[in-house]
Design brief:
It is a single chain. The chain is α+β, with helices and mostly antiparallel strands. 33% of the residues lie in helices and 23% in strands. It contains eleven helices and 15 strands. The strands form three sheets. An eight-stranded mixed β-sheet has the order 5-4-3-6-2-1-7-8, covered by helices on one side. The longest helix has 18 residues, at 161-178. The structure holds adenosine-5'-diphosphate (ADP) and magnesium ion. Magnesium ion binds next to α2. One of its GO terms (biological process) is mismatch repair. This is DNA mismatch repair protein MutL. GO terms for molecular function: ATP binding; ATP hydrolysis activity; ATP-dependent DNA damage sensor activity; endonuclease activity; mismatched DNA binding. Belongs to the DNA mismatch repair MutL/HexB family.
């Protein structure tokens, strides 16, 4: 007879890591989202060797008190929700309480943090989980080194340094586009790649997207009282052979959602032909209760309570903006 056993914690976390930690960029996503959730005004990312050797995210957010450092590394431990009701109204990027546990199960992980009210910072290494005094001026530094050092089967799926870096860069851009109010910096192997001061949305977009996109972009700003769509949609002259200039955010969260993609695509139906893909940067805002983000561990898919209304709203807002007379009218390329 086969024996049924409860799996040890480390193995449980390593299994969970299969869903959450696909590659360095997925680690970066989780760490960036934690920094955002901590209310940071400034976030600095330093990568080594495409993030495989090291990912370091330093923020100036609320920090973690000494007593909670070990807990932050536990599975299903979160400060962000306490009830089903919270889950249904969740306004933070994270809420599952599993990212740090999963990351720590497949990489050498340390957290250094200075919480408000503490006399000095504390540092915890996930391998022994004993907080020790440390030096840090503010916020939290999470360092994740040697990804998959203990799971060689996963390591084999890592691509070249250049490819893994490109994925990290893309992840960084998504957060930077969503949160232009936060100062953000990215460096790779000691070289600064992006240094972004806090600005408003269009300025951040201009800093991160191609001049050509900005030049061809039409502004979008629609508000139904329940749904709000803002951002930029490029005229067909700046259509692409692939989908990599498609950014859609729902309540600040980057998503790849069939319904939304379809609504936008339909708005372009009469002006964009064949295999070309539209380029856009769109922000949809709605009451968190109207959208379920707990559909997928990476939270890249969402489910809308009133899917039809969302589809129609997005379709009409984008259509209207594309049909408005005049050429690209963001005024950004004039700067
Ligand atoms: P989740 O984000 O879903 O809550 P995580 O495993 O990513 O789960 O993080 C666990 C907890 O650790 C968070 O709920 C938060 O309280 C704390 N935490 C993680 N990163 C930071 C950070 N950069 N600053 C402050 N607190 C953090
Ligand atoms: Mg998190």
């Amino acid at each position: 007879m086969p024996q049924i056993r409860v799996l040890p914690d480390l193995l449980i976390n390593q299994i969970a890591a299969g869903e959450v930690v696909e590659r360095p960029a997925s680690v970066l996503k989780e760490l960036l989202e934690n920094a955002v959730d901590a209310g940071s005004r400034s976030i600095e990312v330093a990568l080594e060797q495409g993030g495989v050797r090291r990912i370091r995210v330093a923020d100036d957010g609320c920090g973690i008190v000494r007593e909670q450092l070990a807990l932050a590394l536990d599975r299903h431990a979160t400060s962000k929700i306490t009830s089903l009701d919270d889950l249904e109204h969740v306004a933070t990027m994270g809420f599952r309480g599993e990212a740090l546990a999963a990351i720590a199960a497949v990489a050498r992980t340390t957290i250094t943090s200075l919480a408000e009210g503490e006399r000095h910072a504390w540092r915890i290494d996930a391998s022994d989980r004993q907080p020790a005094p440390a030096a840090l001026n503010h916020g939290t530094v999470v360092e994740v080194a040697d990804l998959y050092y203990n799971t060689p089967a996963r390591r084999k799926f890592l691509k070249t340094e250049a490819t893994e870096f490109a994925h990290c860069d893309e992840m960084f851009r998504r957060v930077a586009l969503a949160r232009p109010d936060i100062a953000m910096q990215l460096s790779h192997n000691g070289r600064v790649i992006h240094r972004l001061p806090p600005v408003e949305h269009t300025k951040r977009a201009a800093a991160l997207l191609s001049d050509d996109f900005i030049h061809h972009a039409r502004p979008i700003d629609a508000d139904s009282g329940i749904l709000r769509l803002s951002g930029l949609a490029a005229l067909p002259a700046y259509s692409r052979a692939n989908r990599d200039a498609q950014y859609f955010f729902v309540n600040g969260r980057f998503v790849r959602d069939k319904l939304l993609t379809h609504a936008v695509r339909q708005a372009y139906a009469d002006i964009l032909h064949g295999q070309r893909h539209p380029a856009y940067l769109l922000f949809l805002e709605l009451d968190p209760a109207g959208v379920d983000v707990n559909v997928h561990p990476a939270k890249i898919e969402v489910r809308f309570r009133d899917a039809r209304a969302v589809h129609q709203f997005v379709f009409h807002a984008v259509s209207r903006s594309l049909a408005a007379p005049g050429a690209a009218a963001t005024g950004l390329d004039a700067e």
